[in-house]
Write a structure and sequence with these properties.
This protein is mainly alpha-helical. It has 9 helices and 2 strands, in the order ααααααααβαβ.
Length: 177
Amino acid sequence: MKDREVVEALYAQSMRRLSAYAFALVGSYSAAEELVQDAIVRTFSKRRRWQDLAAAESYVRAAIRNTHIDAVRRDARWTARLPKLIRTEEAPGPEAAVEGDEAVAVALAALPPRVRTAIVLRYLDDMTVAGVASAMSASEGTVKRYLSDGRALLSQHFELTDEDEQTETVRVKEARR
């Protein structure tokens, strides 16, 4: 039998049995469906000659069992190692710099996408110009232009001081209108 014929017959005739078997292993319908699909992909990703549908079904059943056992082992390993990997103190992310400040969010939304990306990478992620250029796959000159344009556009929303220009920090004061 050809792979396509076997897969079609498997879905038509054996899917209920395979899903019930997977459900017995995992206890969730959605997880069982995922497990069956993973097993079918694993089974039919390699060329094999199938004698009949029963042989293919037993192979898929074994793949379901092995996939589930591998997942249980992997989860157990992660559960044992995860407490050692987690930091106990939380470092604030870059979103803390703009969180709750609607004026900054509105000003950033007004920037063109590439300019906004350069500004965020440079000032919120604290990357160098070379790092921003590498991340954006652009030249340093292009990134400098984006940063200059972005600062000019942001200055319409905020008052930037000379000190900010020299240190390239993102301390901004809302412009008085």
